[in-house]
Amino acid sequence: MDRPSLEAVNRLADAARAADGVAPLSEATLLSLAAPSADGQLHGYVEGESGLDAYSHLRLEDDGTAWAEIVVHPQARRRGLGTRFLEFVRDQNPAVRVWAHGDLPPARAFAAHHGMRRVRDLWVMSRAVDTDPAITDPVAPQGFSARSFRPGDEQAWLDVNGRAFAHHPEQGRMTLADLQARMAESWFDPAGLLLVFEKGTGRLAASHWTKIAEPTSGVGEVYVVGVDPDFQGRGLGGYATALGLAHLRDRGMREIELYVEGDNEPAIATYRRKGFERSARDVMYAFEQ
Ligand SMILES: CC(C)(COP(=O)(O)OP(=O)(O)OC[C@H]1O[C@@H](n2cnc3c(N)ncnc32)[C@H](O)[C@@H]1OP(=O)(O)O)[C@@H](O)C(=O)NCCC(=O)NCCS
C-alpha cells in the first residue's frame, strides 16, 4: 500500500508534539516507515496545504491482534479526521487497540466519544541521575560476569529476550530483522547493550539494553532489561539494571527514564527502590466488543 515519507510523518509528529507536549507515534511506527514495506502494516494519510493533516499506522499481527496510532495535525483537529481514521482501522480489525501517548484530555474525550475503553496502561518512570539512591558500580553476583555486546551475540540475545518476554505483546516477538533494524539506527551503541553471562557455561543469563536517543538531551533510557527464566530469582535483574544505570551515568546523562506496564507491580516496586517515579503514562484503548 501507498505510504507517506518518513520526513512528512516526522513533520506532522513534531507539530503534534509541540502542541501536546508528547510525541504521538512510537519508535516501532517510525521504524516501519524507514524500512521496506511489510505485510500487515497499513499506513493511512491525508495531505493538507502544507504537509500531512493526519496519519494513521495500523499493524495487523499474525495472531489476529491489531494495534494502531492516529495523529491529526493540531490545525486540522475537530473536523472529523480522527474519526475517519479510527473507522478505517476498525474496519480492518474490530478488535484493534489504539495507543494514546501521554494520556491527554483530547484523546480521552475522543475515545469516550467513540465508546472505547482503556485496556492497557503503560507507565513512563524517571529519575534524576544525581538523586538518591545514588547510582553506584554494581558487583556481579557470584558465578556471573558482564561485558558489552559484540557481533555474534545476536541470536543468544534474541533467545533470552523471547523467553524473558514470552507473555509480552510486543517485546517477546522481536525477530532478528527487528533487532538489526534497531542496531542500524544512529543511536545504537554496542557499549550500551550490557550482557551478563554464567561463568563456566558461557550462557547468556540477562541483559540490559540502554538507549541514548539524543546525547545532547541528557536523557538516557532503560530500553530493555531481561533475565532468562532459567536464571530468575538470583538477583540478576537488579544487577543488570544497576549496570545500565551506571553506564548512563558514565555517559553524562542527567535523567534516566523507562517504560513499564502499569500492572507489573514487581517491576514497578523494583524501579521505585532504584529511585524511579511515574512521570507520564500511555494508554491503549479498545472498542467495547
Ligand atoms: C485525539 C485526536 C486523534 C482527535 O482527532 P480529531 O480529528 O480532532 O477528532 P474528531 O474531529 O474526529 O473528533 C471526534 C469527537 O471526539 C471528541 N474530541 C476530539 N478532540 C477533543 C477535544 N480536544 N476536546 C473534547 N472533545 C474532543 C469530540 O466529541 C469530537 O466530536 P465533535 O468535534 O463533534 O465535538 C487528535 O487530538 C490527536 O491527534 N491527538 C494526538 C494523538 C493522539 O492522542 N492519538 C490517540 C487517539 S486515541
From TrEMBL:
PROSITE patterns xref list: GNAT (PS51186)
Chain sites annotated for binding acetyl-CoA 1: 70-72, 78-83
Gene Ontology MF: a single term: mycothiol synthase activity
Key word Plastid present: no
Amino acids binding 1D-myo-inositol 2-(L-cysteinylamino)-2-deoxy-alpha-D-glucopyranoside: 27, 170, 211, 221, 259
Gene3D superfamilies per the UniProt record, alphabetical: 3.40.630.30
Binding site for acetyl-CoA 2: 225-227
Keywords of the record: Acyltransferase, Repeat, Transferase
Catalysed reaction, written as an equation: 1D-myo-inositol 2-(L-cysteinylamino)-2-deoxy-alpha-D-glucopyranoside + acetyl-CoA = mycothiol + CoA + H(+)
InterPro entries, A to Z: Acyl_CoA_acyltransferase, Bact_Acetyltransf, GNAT_dom, Mycothiol_AcTrfase
Pfam families in the cross-refs: Acetyltransf_1 (PF00583)
Example GO BP: mycothiol biosynthetic process
Domain of life: Bacteria
Keyword Repeat attributed: yes
Domain N-acetyltransferase: 1-130, 144-289
EC numbers, comma separated: 2.3.1.189
Reported function: Catalyzes the transfer of acetyl from acetyl-CoA to desacetylmycothiol (Cys-GlcN-Ins) to form mycothiol.
Family listed: Belongs to the acetyltransferase family. MshD subfamily.
Complexes and interactors: Monomer.
The protein, known as: Mycothiol acetyltransferase
Organism for this UniProt entry: Calidifontibacter indicus
